[in-house]
Amino acid sequence: MAPRNGSESRSVGAVKPQTMRFDQPLAFKSGATLPAYDLVYETYGKLNAARSNAVLVCHALNAAHHVAGYYADQPDNVGWWDNMIGPGKPLDTERFFVVGVNNLGGCFGSTGPKSVNPASGKPWGSAFPVVTVEDWVNAQARLADRLGIQSFAAVMGGSLGAMQALQWTMSYPDRIRNSIVVAAAPKLSAQNIAFNEVARQAITTDPDFHGGDYYGHGVVPRRGLRLARMIGHITYLSDDAMMEKFGRALRSDQIGFHFDVDFEIESYLRHQGDKFSEYFDANTYLLITRALDYFDPAAAHGDDLSKALAAAKARLLVVSFTSDWRFAPPRSREIVKALLDNRLDVSYAEIDAPHGHDAFLLEDARYHALVRAWFDGIHAKL
Amino acid sequence: MAPRNGSESRSVGAVKPQTMRFDQPLAFKSGATLPAYDLVYETYGKLNAARSNAVLVCHALNAAHHVAGYYADQPDNVGWWDNMIGPGKPLDTERFFVVGVNNLGGCFGSTGPKSVNPASGKPWGSAFPVVTVEDWVNAQARLADRLGIQSFAAVMGGSLGAMQALQWTMSYPDRIRNSIVVAAAPKLSAQNIAFNEVARQAITTDPDFHGGDYYGHGVVPRRGLRLARMIGHITYLSDDAMMEKFGRALRSDQIGFHFDVDFEIESYLRHQGDKFSEYFDANTYLLITRALDYFDPAAAHGDDLSKALAAAKARLLVVSFTSDWRFAPPRSREIVKALLDNRLDVSYAEIDAPHGHDAFLLEDARYHALVRAWFDGIHAKL
């Protein structure tokens, strides 16, 4: 194995999304059926002759299939996990064939609420079925079928993406050899649900929401979506990281005695909310937060996560971050405990990082070294 | 001293709010001046002949002057700190003369945004000056003047109320002998400000806000106020307490695959938001959250809290709660450190309580015993 280090790592370069059309209906956990759908995806690296080196990377709330590289006509549009994935990077595209896919219900090209419902000729809107992590994983498995991938070398994700990586070990134990579960929880806490609920209420009570069928009204519930993003953003950062980055710094030299922006943190949150509300679909936000709320593999097994994972066979790497208060380390330890109960091959790392939940997206040397070593091990067995 | 125990404690009974009119202008920290104003207040117990047994109780965000007892025509309308204050209770109204006052900018009778601005003959609305903790304390001191109280035996409060109790030691060191500072912070963190900002944005972007002058439009920004309350409520409870109280319990026997209420926590938050938006004034919410943001006594002293407290003379009791993540124990310890730097007589207790920030309002045996003992000590010196 050739020596590798950070200085040799580089971007996968210009990439192109592709679209796969599925005409066979997909039954959702809710009982609803999606008659046909598109999945938008990207791939990096090459599938080897044995078709054994494929890695699926699952996205969380506001990301999608554009995981690494950039678009030729949008050089600044860099994939959301570009620091992790590329030639010489921890998930090395010179060794692995990496697949990123926009999940169903999304708003970046895969079939979702703003797609046209063939039954009505109008956007799905409120009629788009509520989708679950299990449904996403089923759709991802169909994409794998079409790509000729019988078994993934690994499925990897952070946050909601990690829930998909975990669900893979339960839904398709024979089609996943390794699972990398970063910054996850086995189910949301009441507080987690509470934050999602406030975000959803911000959207659904926006007068421009029109019951989810705003597309026909020429408006979007931008105010609600903006608030939802602001709330979410607070939960992604640790109190300490926010204090370190913004503190009580003012935008001008003194407080203004008004309700406009005084503090840098206010300006930052408004900016994040404004940006997000320009490109994200509100119905997708509702669907994705609901998928988070509903994820609870233990529920069907008498609240016993160990039983839920009884069929799992994959090797697992579970990673948490000390300052993550959204899905704090004890939540990852619940997963580890259930995996150990099943005598599965599991490694667990609690990374001492100050950035909160968002740490899973950041380039922390120890975290990246760990993932790199893990993939080295997978590669050695290919 | 007669023995007392919980079984002997009782309500102060039926109480009546009173209104004090002030015709002398009050200058605010912002530079604005309130030409005249009313303060609504309640008192319990009797001011002794030496006028030495008065205790001022300061309210936090959504409370007011109705601290203990009930109203004869509204027997269910019990004061917000009734478990703490009454005959035989930790703050014993058989020994102390207790004063509760609705702060300026409030919406429960004291002059605030919904009061009529004499200059225009219309509600103040957006023209009501931004008010600070210092301004509130100045107004409280004027009320004390009118009540013939030269010096308070104690000023007491939790959360924002505690900030007022602390400000008293700095603004009027010769008029306060004891300060009880519960669940406080010496200034808000970036995360604290962030939550306030999202709440304010929910209100000010509600189409019914009309720039703060909604009174003339026959509407109130109820949607925004409801969201603000929901957000706030999450921060008052600990993750553990929420999990204990609500968990992932469902309202019906199964999830509904919709965005209506599935989980008990959703129902609870919506109910809290609905209730609050029925009675609270949105402009008051803006003012009070801004007073929280702006409270930072160290700022005028080179960010040195010890210097800010250099003039303080009071004895202090500082109390924090282990599960309070809004104003966590380390925030109280910052205050204690600054008090000790000034060689002040300070006691600090960190109460192991699961309820989060709201613990300051709840009847925890150790917490109440501590406050009771503290007031016993004050009484012994009267």
Characterization of this structure:
Two copies of one chain form a homodimer. The first copy, chain A, is α/β, with parallel strands linked by helices. Helices cover 33% and strands 15% of the residues of chain A. Chain A has ten helices and 14 strands. In chain A, helix 3 packs antiparallel against helix 4. The first copy, chain A, is globular. Residues 1-6 of chain A have low confidence and may be disordered.
Whole-number average pLDDT of chain A?
96
Class by SSE composition of chain A: alpha/beta
**Stretches with pLDDT under 50, minimum 5 residues of chain A:** 1-6
Oligomer: homodimer
Largest sheet of chain A: 8 strands, mixed
Main-sheet strand order of chain A equals 1-4-8-5-11-12-13-14
Helix content of chain A: 25-40%
Rg over alpha carbons of chain A: 21 Å
How many beta-strand runs of chain A?
Answer: 14
Total DSSP helices of chain A: 10
Q: Please give the most extensive interface between any two protein chains, plus how many residues each contributes.
A: A-B, 54 and 54 residues
Secondary-structure element sequence of chain A? EEEEEEEEEEHEHEHHHHHHEHEH
How widely separated are the two ends of chain A? Answer: 13 Å
Which percent range describes the beta-strand content of chain A?
A: 15-25%
The geometry of chain A reads as globular
